[in-house]
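User: Please run a holo structure prediction.
Assistant: Happy to. Please share the sequence and the ligand.
User: Here you go; the ligand is NAP.
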Amino acid sequence: MDLGLKGKTALVAASSRGLGRAVADELAREGANLVICARTVAPLEEAGRAIHDETGVEVVAVPTDLSKPADVARLMETAESDFGKIDVLITNTGGPPPGPFESHSVEAWSTAVEQNLNSVLNLTRAVLPGMKKAGWGRIINITSVAVKQPIDGLILSNAVRAAVTGFAKTLANEVAADGITVNNVMPGFTKTERLDSLAANISETQGITVEEAFDRWKSQSPMGRIGEPTEFAALVTFLASERASYITGTSIPVDGGFIQALL
Ligand SMILES: NC(=O)c1ccc[n+]([C@@H]2O[C@H](COP(=O)([O-])OP(=O)(O)OC[C@H]3O[C@@H](n4cnc5c(N)ncnc54)[C@H](OP(=O)(O)O)[C@@H]3O)[C@@H](O)[C@H]2O)c1
């Protein structure tokens, strides 16, 4: 299947490692040029070099803290001056810290909203005019299975990702006639550094081993295993493609069957 991504430009947020990196890798293999970002410069630049060396696409790596609006503005200026417009936007960023409601300060809630909701709004605001002018665009938000089945101990994530989902569903209707689709992809438990750090936290707070924390997650999936970032990236890449032209306003899980709801 030709996905029609060759020569398109994709901005993949938070993409030096983990899910964002896997999506960047896959889009580049389909021939899309990339803008990638993360806070830490060395691994970001290394990711950019590795993707370019493997695929030959143009990759611009812009150090960015997505929780800082000034950084997001600079990211978008660089993207615009290097590529003119963004065809595909993948919103993503680090996950908020775990812990029950009473462990989080007012500031922690503000940070989670800034990082996991406002960064989505700021990135979307910046790409929409170009997509509308082109009459084509793809916006894909990386959320979480927590939107359908909240995960105990992740109250910040459970709450803020629901806001992203409400935003995306409404935006999908507003821009559908402009040729722009807006979808969310909900990762289940997928092998990245984020999952390693959540397992370490569970081990510390619940007195079980890291391995037992992983076994608990595995037992919650009918497949009995943790997902691979490449399995997640495959769906995101399809949604970013020409071929996903009649899919909008959805939230699709990549979770090995973790979510127990019918729809
Ligand atoms: N993995 C899972 O099982 C899973 C399941 C459900 C939802 N999710 C969510 O999916 C998202 C990605 O998760 P992941 O597993 O890929 O995490 P990860 O392995 O920790 O990777 C996070 C990436 O985001 C970058 N990043 C973090 N905070 C940033 C910020 N403020 N500004 C810019 N870049 C930032 C990191 O680089 P720097 O640290 O250098 O900035 C890194 O490149 C998270 O929101 C996570 O909560 C993950």
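The chain has two domains: 9-188+228-254, 191-226.
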